[in-house]
Amino acid sequence: MTNHHDGPFPNGPSFPDALTEQGRARREQLRANLAAVEQRIAAACAAAGRPRQEVTLVVVTKTYPAEDTRLLASLGVTEVAENRDQDAAPKAAECADLPLNWHFVGQLQTNKVRSVVRYADFVHSVDRPRLVDALSTAVVRAERPELACLVQVALEKEAGDAAAAQAAGRAGVAPEEVAALADALADAPGLRFAGVMTVAPLVGRYAGDPAAAFGRLAEIATAVRAAHPAATMVSAGMSGDLEQAVAAGATHVRVGTAVLGARPPLR
């Protein structure tokens, strides 16, 4: 769970006082947005009969500057996510003094793996055996702690949805391929198989129905835990559908726009 409060913060208690007027205004905007998202998560947990502490908010900071990440940390955010290494690596370096866990949530090319393992605590987007091998090799060589990894599930690739899968072009493995990739992660030196992740599909039988999509992910997560009891993470839900994800049992919701505002265009 991510708490939203002031400090303790590595820059000391005077950090907010040192901000410019613009910085203070941005911090207050983020505080209000975090409070609104917290209300939504708490209400969704209550509706689902779940304790609030079962759901962790991961703030997706992609396209936003390190200054915003620093402001979020000053408000008590501890979990942040990025989807492109070229943006994440310098941002993580600039924020290395902060008590943050970094989640990599984007499609990961093998040539970026060595960079990603320098800062990432979680990789949500493992979708092929070659990536498992590359991550394992990089972690072992870096002599760093275990890297938590999730299998990204592409629900539009469900058996019988071949046309949807072809049209989707989205990363992730078909549901029937999850078990084999989970086993590969569990056996890979330096990696810890942590659970499963999905994004609500835009095509196929679950298009426009995130509740059904996340319900299907919950079934997959349950099956995975039968073989890997410690793989309890279920990463699902974003700004527009976090309530449905919480109702279906998500343990981590990845929220960007609702906290940081409408995104600037990618460079």
Describe the protein.
Helices cover 41% and strands 15% of the residues. It has 10 helices and 8 strands. The protein has an 8-stranded parallel β-sheet with strand order 7-6-5-4-3-2-1-8. The longest helix has 28 residues, at 21-48.
**By helix and strand content, what is the structural category?**
alpha/beta
Spatially, the strands of the biggest sheet line up as 7-6-5-4-3-2-1-8
Fraction in beta strands: 5-15%
Helical content band = 40-55%
Largest sheet at a glance?
8 strands, parallel
Q: Low-confidence stretches at least 5 residues in length (pLDDT < 50)?
A: 1-8
Question: Which characteristics define this entry?
Answer:
globular, disordered N terminus, single chain, alpha/beta, eight-stranded parallel β-sheet, 10 helices, 267 residues
Topology record:
Layout: H1 21-48, E1 56-60, H2 66-74, E2 79-82, H3 85-94, E3 101-104, H4 113-116, E4 122-126, H5 129-142, E5 147-153, H6 162-168, H7 178-187, E6 191-198, H8 210-227, E7 233-235, H9 242-247, E8 252-255, H10 257-260
Parallel strand pairs: 1-2, 1-8, 2-3, 3-4, 4-5, 5-6, 6-7
Would you summarize the structure shown here?
This protein is an alpha/beta fold and 267 residues long. Helix content is 41%, strand content 15%.
